[in-house]
């Protein structure tokens, strides 16, 4: 076919646009691509703006009445479905490693004392049975700062950045050494204990955290689980779900949240210091 001069110019423009797109996609240092948060194969809310925004975000937990709780640099905050944030209780402690028993008011946290506190530093493990309104020292006070923590009934597994995980089978009263692993994120589901390391590799334990095996999975930045449901956020900002004995399913793109939690019914919540997303499980 013989092109006219106009068609040649149009073809050249298309070629140049394609070259730019390929070059952009090959830049490894680029941040996660900006995409429509609702794009993908699953249902996700549009990003809900938090007001006021949070001061850091170290973990999320869903209480018995489905209040979303956020561990922050200045205490615990509640997040409404509309994105309004309010302080919970009077503690201004820096709550690291926030976790809890899904769907209950039992919450666990670690971290550092706030300005109004005279508690030892680090806090060790603290526990609340009223959704974070009050806290009690549970163990390891002045000894451990759990930056990563996961809980399910009496089982807790955490990391303070040391060479080995710490495991408790009595709701955090006593601890023993677990596998040699330094996780970026931890989760517990019916399939076992899950971990992802800083390189995004996913590991699973079926013996209570004493040993882990590498699992074929996307490159993961965040994990959270409840019952048979496991959710993850990958390095490119996509959500994934993994239900018991099923393959990984790619969900929607939401960007780079700082924390993730899963409700007993499989619904997932992800948040940054400024935004909240609600992810509906695929069926």
Protein described:
It is a single chain. A hairpin with a 5-residue loop joins strand 5 (75-79) and strand 6 (85-88). This protein has 283 residues and is mostly beta strands. It is built from one helix and 25 strands. 43% of the residues are buried. 7% of the residues lie in helices and 42% in strands. The N and C termini lie far apart (49 Å). The chain is globular, with a radius of gyration of 21 Å. The strands form six sheets. Strands 1, 2, 23, 24 and 25 form a five-stranded antiparallel β-sheet that branches. A four-stranded antiparallel β-sheet has the order 3-4-5-6, with no helix packed on it.
Key terms for this structure?
283 residues; mainly beta; five-stranded antiparallel β-sheet; four-stranded antiparallel β-sheet; 1 helix; globular
Q: What's the main sheet like?
A: 5 strands, antiparallel
The radius of gyration over CA amounts to 21 Å
- Our measurement of the CA-to-CA distance between the termini, rounded to an integer number of angstroms, reads 49 Å
N-to-C order of helices and strands: HEEEEEEEEEEEEEEEEEEEEEEEEE
Helix-and-strand structural type: mainly beta
The mean pLDDT is: 88
Beta percentage is 35-45%
- Note the total helix count: 1
